[in-house]
Recover the amino acids of this structure.
């Protein structure tokens, strides 16, 4: 199309009248004369150091105006524009070299001459391809490639003309931003990600960290941000859904789905990783490479995934590579000591890669089991060998969680029901309980702060930090809690199968009962384990009763009450500060109150329940009176009184009315005759009850 336009222009020039041709020729001649005059003015402004500043400034402004006029005239054709660019490049470099030894104004003119020379390089490359009839996208590519020349030349400027560096870096920043963002304005559907990443790499090559900074850091960071934002959609797709939408669980291996734009985005991310390495690489060996590695790692990790998708890697290559890389990053970070900047980047990238790897491996049973198995092994290694107690704790907890997932997945993959998987999960809980018993006595180290590396240290590794001591048994207590949670999961998996649930409860009660036998266990923790074991066994009894269709209330309340009363009696003997209400109140309430409610509000006569409840209440009252325990006396007495009133109400219609009237009259007469003595008896009873424990 450009060639056609040039041909049309040439045809137009051939067809215009002779007077017009002479006018165009004279205009070009005037442009060349203006350029010559501008060159002379600029040479006069910087050639003589003794010239006054105002004179030099006037001459420089005039020369710049004349050169600008010559450039505008030269834009009428590619040849003229190319010649004008060459003149500006030559004059700019000459002015920059000649004006360094002059006054302040001349040095400023020399600096702006260097700016013009830097800016005209990509413009000249684009103009050259316009003259050759190349399409617009090749013009943009040529301009971006031409910016590499000023990037290299700026190193010589910084070394030999340090006073010109701010001007050169500013001009380079403007040129690199314009060429890096050229696809936004240039037709041709060029990937802005690649252009912006390449421009950011050129900024890093030009001397990103040189002082004074000028505009280069702003340009480099801005271009890197543009490239990153433009790559986000493709990068997210390559990470999360490399084979199309997320596959359903165990729906078979997905087919390869082409991802448009994966190649340029992968190349751009690799270029950004290189640019980050150049921009952050330490200038001296005393700093260490951890900051540089922290900046490079995210770009390199995502670039690898995107390039694998672009290459059409079949399943499960992409998720497997992501999972292995993520687990390796996390494991290396856990086992070795790095600077905090690298640790933050490695942990973030490792978690993301591990998560997307596991997500995309769920397409098949084998993939799911392999991913969970790898996670179990890696987390176990971290739990055993990590340097800090917090990392070891996290490793053990992740290992328990992954092992639980594996224990659920493996039976399901074999076609077994969930109630069978519950026993595998219970095995994981028992293993966690055993690990807790062996870990609680081990001394843990607190997380330390890595010190700066010594001179000559290689890589991002920092020297080992001094480890302190943490509370003993932290990992053990966490594993105990995790074991209880996993056992609860096993019980929930038996929903709808009470006999399986009862078996799980019995086994878990036995396991916890063995756990409390460890020698160095504290008394408080022994009580906790005993309560869990007893509660598990009671729950097993309840589930068996439900499975057998037993509807008798006491079948459910009496086992729990016996357990509570036994624990309370032991507590009264071993803990002097315990009262009977704390030790025996819950158990007595469990054995008396549900049956009392059934008697008072039930519709059936229930003679045996009334008889046995009265006997139990009487026994509790007598035992409390003998042992001077307040809770049995009060609860048993209240139960007996309520039962007596209930019996009285039931017998109201069974006896003649005069019997009740006679009994009430005799009671009132007796109470009136012995009122003072009964009153003293009540006060003594109240005092005796208050003195009970």
């Amino acid at each position: 199309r450009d060639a056609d336009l040039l041909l049309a222009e040439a045809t137009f020039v051939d067809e215009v009248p002779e007077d017009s041709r002479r006018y165009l020729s004279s205009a070009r001649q005037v442009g060349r004369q203006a350029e010559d005059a501008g060159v002379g003015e600029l040479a006069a402004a910087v050639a003589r150091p003794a010239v006054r500043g105002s004179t030099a400034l006037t001459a420089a402004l005039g020369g710049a105006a004349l050169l600008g006029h010559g450039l505008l005239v030269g834009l009428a054709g590619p040849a003229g524009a190319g010649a004008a660019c060459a003149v500006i490049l030559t004059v700019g470099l000459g002015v920059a070299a000649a004006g360094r030894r002059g006054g302040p104004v001349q040095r400023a003119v020399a600096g702006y001459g260097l700016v013009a020379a830097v800016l005209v390089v990509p413009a000249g490359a684009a103009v050259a391809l316009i003259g050759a009839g190349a399409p617009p996208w090749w013009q943009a590519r040529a301009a971006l490639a031409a910016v590499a020349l000023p990037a290299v030349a700026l190193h010589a400027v910084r070394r030999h003309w340090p006073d010109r560096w701010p001007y050169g870096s500013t001009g380079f920043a403007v040129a690199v931003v314009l060429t890096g963002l050229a696809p936004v304005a240039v037709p041709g559907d060029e990937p802005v990600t690649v252009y912006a990443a390449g421009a950011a790499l050129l900024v890093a090559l030009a001397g990103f960290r040189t002082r004074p900074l000028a505009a280069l850091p702003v340009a480099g960071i801005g271009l890197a941000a543009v490239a990153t934002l433009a790559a986000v959609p493709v990068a997210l797709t390559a990470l999360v859904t490399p084979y199309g939408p997320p596959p359903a669980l165990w729906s078979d291996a997905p087919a390869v789905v082409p991802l448009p734009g994966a190649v340029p985005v992968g190349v751009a991310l690799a270029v950004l990783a290189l640019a980050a390495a150049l921009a952050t690489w330490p200038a001296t060996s005393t700093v260490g490479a951890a900051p540089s590695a922290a900046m490079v790692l995210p770009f390199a990790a995502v670039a690898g995934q995107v390039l694998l998708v672009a290459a059409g890697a079949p399943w499960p290559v992409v998720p497997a590579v992501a999972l292995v890389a993520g687990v390796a990053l996390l494991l290396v970070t856990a086992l070795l000591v790095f600077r905090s900047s690298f640790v933050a980047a490695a942990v973030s990238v490792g978690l993301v890669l591990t998560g997307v790897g596991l997500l995309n491996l769920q397409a098949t049973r084998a993939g799911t089991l392999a991913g969970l198995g790898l996670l179990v092994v890696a987390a176990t290694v971290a739990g055993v060998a990590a340097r800090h107690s917090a990392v070891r704790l996290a490793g053990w907890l992740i290992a328990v969680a992954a092992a639980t997932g594996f224990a659920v997945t493996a039976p399901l993959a074999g076609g077994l029901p969930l109630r069978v998987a519950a026993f595998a999960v219970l095995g994981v809980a028992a293993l966690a309980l055993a690990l807790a018993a062996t870990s609680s006595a081990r001394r843990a180290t607190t997380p330390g702060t890595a010190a700066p590396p010594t001179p000559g240290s290689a890589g991002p590794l920092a020297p080992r930090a001094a480890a302190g001591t943490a509370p003993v048994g932290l990992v053990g207590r966490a594993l105990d809690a995790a074991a209880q949670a996993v056992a609860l999961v096993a019980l929930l998996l038996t929903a709808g199968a009470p006999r399986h649930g009862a078996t799980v409860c019995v086994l878990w009660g036995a396991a916890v009962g063995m756990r409390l036998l460890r020698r160095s266990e504290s008394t408080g923790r022994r009580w906790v384990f005993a309560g869990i074991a007893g509660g598990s066994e009671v729950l097993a009894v309840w589930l068996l009763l439900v499975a057998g269709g037993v509807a008798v209330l006491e079948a459910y309340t009496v086992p729990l009450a016996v357990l509570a009363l036994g624990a309370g009696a032991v507590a009264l003997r071993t803990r002097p500060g315990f009262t009977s209400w704390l030790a025996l109140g819950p158990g007595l309430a469990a054995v008396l109150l549900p049956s009392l409610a059934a008697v008072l509000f039930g519709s059936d006569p229930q003679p045996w329940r009334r008889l046995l409840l009265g006997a139990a209440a009487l026994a509790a009252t007598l035992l409390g009176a003998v042992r001077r325990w307040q809770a049995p006396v009060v609860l048993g007495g209240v139960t007996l009184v309520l039962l007596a009133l209930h019996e009285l109400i039931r017998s109201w219609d069974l006896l003649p009315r005069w019997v009740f009237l006679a009994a009430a009259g005799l009671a009132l007469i007796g109470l009136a005759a012995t009122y003072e003595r009964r009153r003293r008896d009540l006060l003594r009873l109240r005092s005796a009850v208050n003195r009970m424990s």
In short: The CA atoms of residues 6 and 12 lie 10 Å apart.
